Amino acid sequence: MDEESGMNKVLSIKITGRTNNKVVEDRKLIIPVGRGYLLKTIDESLKTKKAGDEYELTLKPEQGYGERMTNLIKLVPMKYFRKDNVTPYPGLIVNIDGLIGKVRSVSPGRILIDFNHPLAGKTLEFKIKIIKELKDKALIAKEIIKSFTGMKCKVRLVNKKLRASIDGELPLKIKNKLEQEVREVLGITVEILTRKA
């Protein structure tokens, strides 16, 4: 955190992740450092980096998404699918009681689902480039809101307070959590205004 501005370090980065020579992530991100937006080892590594730095990290499974756990592979009765009129097939991504999993096999009356993270048990290799450190609070707030909600917004500074307008509605709990996150990252009050799209 920058003691003078009360703002967390926020970086624009390019990150490419691979496992077994297969690209699993390749994107540009705006990241408030130390806020848990990335895997802990990557997040920690960013604390000492500055614009122009490029480096590589290798993460063992326990530093990434953990080891694969056999107790997260479950047989689920077909009734869970029938009630929603879904025909399961291998590879289908499903949500069962709030858990996201992937159908591994289908047999009469029962479906085998793997609830492990797709990258669990894998060693991950990341190449990271620091593009720049950001100071524009409106831009940072806009990116945080977009990362939490997937919604575009307009942000402006009004009387030392950020005001963000979103075309859409947010549940009050999410709106409050988002305002808190922006306030903690930027050290400035934010008000999020929502309206029906």
In short:
The chain is α+β, with helices and mostly antiparallel strands and 197 residues long. 20% of the residues lie in helices and 41% in strands.
List the helices and strands and how they pair.
Layout: E1 10-19, E2 22-32, H1 40-46, E3 54-59, E4 73-77, H2 79-82, E5 93-96, E6 99-107, E7 110-114, E8 124-134, H3 137-149, E9 153-158, E10 161-167, H4 172-186, E11 190-195
Parallel strand pairs: 10-11
Antiparallel strand pairs: 1-2, 1-8, 3-8, 4-7, 5-6, 6-7, 9-10
Question: What can you see in these coordinates?
Answer:
With 197 residues, this protein is an alpha+beta fold. It has 3 domains: 1-66 and 120-135, Chitinase A, domain 3 (Roll), CATH 3.10.50.40; 70-114, Thrombin, subunit H; 136-197, GMP Synthetase, Chain A, domain 3. It has 4 helices and 11 strands. The chain has helices spanning 40-46, 79-82, 137-149, 172-186; strands at residues 10-19, 22-32, 54-59, 73-77, 93-96, 99-107, 110-114, 124-134, 153-158, 161-167, 190-195. It has a 4-stranded antiparallel beta sheet with strand order 2-1-8-3. Strand 1 and strand 2 form a beta hairpin. The two termini are 36 Å apart. Mean pLDDT is 89; it is low at 1-6.
